[in-house]
Design brief:
Blueprint lengths: L3 H14 L6 H15 L11 H8 L3 H13 L3 E4 L5 E4 L4 H12 L6 H18 L6 H15 L5 H20 L4 H19 L7 H20 L2 H26 L1 H5 L6
Antiparallel strand pairs: 1-2
């Protein structure tokens, strides 16, 4: 038989492992998400109206409204007013999904190594997955992207646009990726780089831009030939080269300065 002290320790452990009680509105949110999956609902489908939700869940009007607001904030529904109004399902955008994760990482003192440790693994896989899937329109957009990046910038705004475009080249590839998880992860890493490099003023690094244009041009040629081995090789080299340039920029500017919000510099 356990001693009284052991029984007390067991009771404390049980209490620590007990699931935290959910808010009633969160229960509705989770039920709606399960309903979306179970019923294979699509963006544009209408949720039951407020009265029907109250009857369905048996909760008060205020609780149902709180749940609807939470779903709207999370990007899962849009609320329309007037005739034909109500709550409609919508596709969560990459930006909506990415921003909270970037906010979470904002105070974790990120540097280029953290991002490229993943980017060097994921970008070559994404690049190969896109071989044979690019449409003529997408090739045109990629080529226009490269043309934009070859122009000599004359202002800081033009330089910022070029840095954004260099990352957008990879986002355009991600749009054709058949794996939604891989596509999202690569676009998320691109967003992190944009936050670090573009919006934190780490812009004026001409050798970086020249190297990006060179690799993107070679990648386009390999995609035209549908040479998967060449695409993988080029993208792997591109990521190693980009990481080296990122380290140079951080050494020049200082990683701490790079991560400060613009108003604090």
């Amino acid at each position: 038989m356990k001693s009284k002290q052991q029984q007390q320790q067991d009771a404390r452990g049980f209490g620590q492992n007990r699931p935290r009680r959910q808010k009633l509105s969160d229960v509705i949110v989770e039920d709606v998400k399960r309903w979306i999956v179970a019923e294979r609902k699509q963006p544009g489908d209408r949720l039951p109206n407020e009265k029907e939700l109250i009857e369905l869940f048996g909760y008060s009007k205020s609780t149902v409204r709180e749940a609807l607001k939470a779903l709207e904030v999370r990007g899962l529904i849009s609320i329309r007013t007037g005739p034909g109004g109500g709550a409609y399902l919508q596709q969560v955008s990459v930006e909506h999904a990415s921003e909270p994760l970037r906010n979470f990482l904002h105070f974790h003192h990120l540097d280029g190594h953290h991002i490229y440790q993943l980017r060097k693994v994921l970008e070559p896989e994404l690049a190969v997955s896109v071989v044979g899937r690019l449409t003529p329109e997408q090739f045109e957009r990629l080529e226009e992207n490269v043309r934009l990046c070859t122009q000599e910038p004359t202002t800081e705004d033009e330089l910022r646009i070029q840095r954004e475009a260099e990352l957008a080249f990879h986002t355009l590839l991600a749009e054709s990726c058949p794996n939604p998880v891989l596509s999202f992860m690569c676009r998320f890493l691109n967003d992190l780089l944009r936050d670090l490099v573009v919006y934190k003023k780490a812009l004026d690094h001409h050798h970086f831009g020249e190297a990006n244009v060179d690799y993107h041009t070679q990648l386009l040629a390999a995609y035209r030939k549908e040479d998967a081995d060449e695409v993988r090789r080029l993208m792997a080299e591109h990521m190693v080269d980009a990481e080296a340039h990122m380290h140079e920029m951080e050494a020049h500017i200082g990683a701490k300065h790079l991560l400060l919000p613009s108003g604090q510099r």
